Amino acid sequence: MIEPLVLIPPMMCDARVFYAQLASLSANIPITFAPITGGERMEELASQILTWLPPKFALAGMGMGGMVAMEILRRAPERVTRVAFIATNAQSDTPEVAAMREPNIIAAKSGRLDDAMQSEVNPAWLSPGPYRMDVVSLLSDMAQALGPDVYVRQSRAMQRRKDQQNIMRRIKQPALVMCGDHDGQNTQRRHEFIAELIPYAKLEVIPNAGHMPTLENPDAVTVALRAWMRQPLVLR
């Protein structure tokens, strides 16, 4: 029997970021979308999500959602049957990066969420091609739907997050590490590093995709997730 799959989105994204995966995988996999809009710390978000979920589940997180997934693994590893990290980072913000978030927080609070999002959604982080600006437009729409208060809370959680490299080393579940080959923020090298930390992890580099692989090359992401969900639970 296949276990339920929990999808956790990136910063300022709703379920539309996983639209193609939800549409395809839900035909034979029970799927839960877990929003990350209700807290200012990764610990708070992870605790909230754990109250919604069944005793055992597969876990896939993208971007900030991957960081929340790491915290869920830290808190309740016995409940997670398998884990996938997509376009994410296991390290904490450097002091410089944390400080750089402050002007964006001020902009969002003062009614300039679009200005704040311009630094969060850099088109150069996406794969080049005719649909790049369509992806940027969708990201902007999702951000506006969530609003400035969510932006501020999520920015605080990003600033305060812990380094999770030790958690990566303790993962015993089947693990998938996925990134786009054009990701200009969370680079392929960064994902290679995460995969090296996790025993027996599989690294999947998605072609013709950047920082938002679920939107840029959705079919390839769906194929990789389906194969991961079929992987035996017992590792070598």
What's a concise summary of this model?
It contains 11 helices and 6 strands. The chain has helices spanning 19-25, 42-52, 64-75, 95-109, 113-120, 132-146, 148-160, 165-169, 188-197, 213-216, 218-230; strands spanning 5-8, 31-33, 57-62, 80-86, 175-180, 202-206. The model has no long low-confidence stretch (mean pLDDT 95).
Question: What does the model show?
Answer:
The chain has 236 residues and is of the alpha/beta class. It has a single domain (5-94, 154-230), classed as Rossmann fold, CATH 3.40.50. Helix content is 48%, strand content 13%. It has eleven helices and six strands. The protein has helices spanning 19-25, 42-52, 64-75, 95-109, 113-120, 132-146, 148-160, 165-169, 188-197, 213-216, 218-230; strands spanning 5-8, 31-33, 57-62, 80-86, 175-180, 202-206. It has a six-stranded parallel β-sheet with strand order 2-1-3-4-5-6, with helices on both faces. Strand 1, helix 1 and strand 2 form a beta-alpha-beta unit. The longest helix has 15 residues, at 95-109. The mean pLDDT is 95.
Radius of gyration: 17 Å
Number of helices: 11
Taking pLDDT < 50 over at least 5 consecutive residues as the criterion, the unreliable ranges are none
For the secondary structure, the number of strands is: 6
Q: Provide the number of structural domains.
A: 1
Overall spatial form: globular
Which CATH class applies here?
A: Alpha Beta
SSE inventory with pairings:
Elements: E1 5-8, H1 19-25, E2 31-33, H2 42-52, E3 57-62, H3 64-75, E4 80-86, H4 95-109, H5 113-120, H6 132-146, H7 148-160, H8 165-169, E5 175-180, H9 188-197, E6 202-206, H10 213-216, H11 218-230
Parallel strand pairs: 1-2, 1-3, 3-4, 4-5, 5-6
